[in-house]
Design brief:
The chain has about 160 residues and is α/β, with parallel strands linked by helices. The protein has 5 helices and 7 strands. Helix content is about 35%, strand content about 20%.
C-alpha cells in the first residue's frame, strides 16, 4: 500500500506487517499434523507450521545443521513422544541443551501418558502435555490449548 504526498510515493507496506507465529511440529503422522492445522485455523491464529517427519530431521533442526543452518527460531515447539529414528525423549534432551532454544516453550503431545513421561517432562522443562484425542471435536480443542500457551507460556 502506498500513499502519495505531492508527487513522491511513500511506502506503507511495513507499517502493518504482523509476523505469523512459527510452530515447529515434530510428528511422523501426517493426519495428526493436518488436524492440528485445522484446529489452529479454527482459533483464528496467524501461524506457520514447520513440520519435521522424524527425529533425525528434528536433531538437524535443533543443531542447526545442513538445510536448517539458518532456520528461524520457532515461537513454539510441539513434539510427539513416539517418533521414528530417534524418540521424543531424545529430541527433548537435545532441545533442553540447545541454548538458542532456551526461551521457546515446548509442548509434548502423545497418544499415551505414563508417570515416567510426566517426571521426565518436568525435568526437561516441558510447558504442556497434550494427550492426543481420538475424536475430531476433542482434537479441535488442541487449537485453544496452543493459543493459550502462546499467549502466556508461563501459565501452562
Amino acid at each position: 500500500m502506498a500513499g502519495i504526498v505531492g508527487r513522491r510515493e511513500i511506502s506503507m507496506k511495513h507499517a502493518s506487517v504482523i509476523r505469523a507465529t512459527r510452530i515447529l511440529v515434530i510428528e511422523d503422522n501426517g493426519s495428526d499434523v493436518f488436524l492440528l492445522e485445522r484446529a489452529l485455523k479454527k482459533q483464528d491464529l496467524r501461524f506457520e507450521l514447520v513440520h519435521l517427519l522424524n527425529g533425525g530431521e528434528a536433531l538437524a533442526f535443533i543443531r542447526r545443521q545442513g538445510v536448517y543452518r539458518d532456520a528461524e527460531i520457532p515461537n513454539l515447539i510441539l513434539v510427539d513422544l513416539n517418533l521414528s529414528k530417534y524418540t521424543g525423549e531424545d529430541i527433548l534432551h537435545e532441545i533442553h541443551s540447545a541454548s538458542h532454544l532456551g526461551g521457546v516453550p515446548v509442548c509434548v503431545w502423545s497418544s499415551s501418558r505414563s508417570r515416567r513421561d510426566e517426571a521426565l517432562l518436568k525435568d526437561l522443562g516441558v510447558s504442556q502435555f497434550i494427550t492426543k484425542p481420538s475424536g475430531l471435536n476433542q482434537f479441535m480443542e488442541i487449537g485453544k490449548t496452543i493459543k493459550d500457551l502462546l499467549a502466556d507460556p508461563r501459565a501452562a
